[in-house]
């Protein structure tokens, strides 16, 4: 049993998880990632293809959100494959491949156009996350 000294509870975790790590945190993270990827994919597709409906972007946006969450939770961490830098590259390639497969399925594009739209989606997402980080300081 832990004893309380001077009315202050001892710190039980060295680095407490602000989200609690529960199911609600996982669902919220997936939904937020899905929204982010869907919006940036729709912007990239509108720029690349032209006037497109939002449904394909919403359908394809869930794939990179889930893959990035799974890689962040189970693929990367303290037990690295080679080094943190190499693990980052492996995760980035895996997310881009999953994104390309989802884009190809959702938009039914040829593979060259899929590769171009995937690269454009990566560029739009990178620019938006840097801008949001500069505004709100997420990272």
Automatic annotation (TrEMBL):
Keywords: Membrane, Transmembrane, Transmembrane helix. Pfam families: DUF7473. The chain crosses the membrane at residues 24-50, 57-76, 88-107, 114-136. This is Yip1 domain-containing protein. It comes from Halomicrobium zhouii. The lineage of its organism: Archaea, Methanobacteriati, Methanobacteriota, Stenosarchaea group, Halobacteria.
């Amino acid at each position: 049993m832990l004893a309380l000294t001077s009315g202050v509870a001892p710190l039980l975790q060295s680095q407490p998880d602000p989200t609690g790590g529960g199911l609600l945190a996982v669902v919220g993270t997936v939904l937020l990632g899905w929204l982010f990827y869907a919006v940036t994919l729709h912007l990239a597709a509108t720029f690349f293809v032209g006037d497109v409906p939002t449904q394909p972007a919403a359908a394809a946006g869930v794939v990179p959100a889930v893959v990035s969450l799974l890689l962040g939770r189970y693929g990367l961490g303290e037990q690295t494959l080679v080094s943190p830098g190499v693990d980052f590259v492996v995760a980035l390639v895996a997310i881009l491949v999953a994104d390309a497969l989802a884009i190809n399925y959702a938009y039914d594009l040829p593979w060259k156009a899929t590769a171009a739209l995937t690269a454009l989606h990566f560029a739009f997402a990178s620019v938006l996350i840097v801008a949001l980080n500069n505004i709100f300081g997420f990272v």
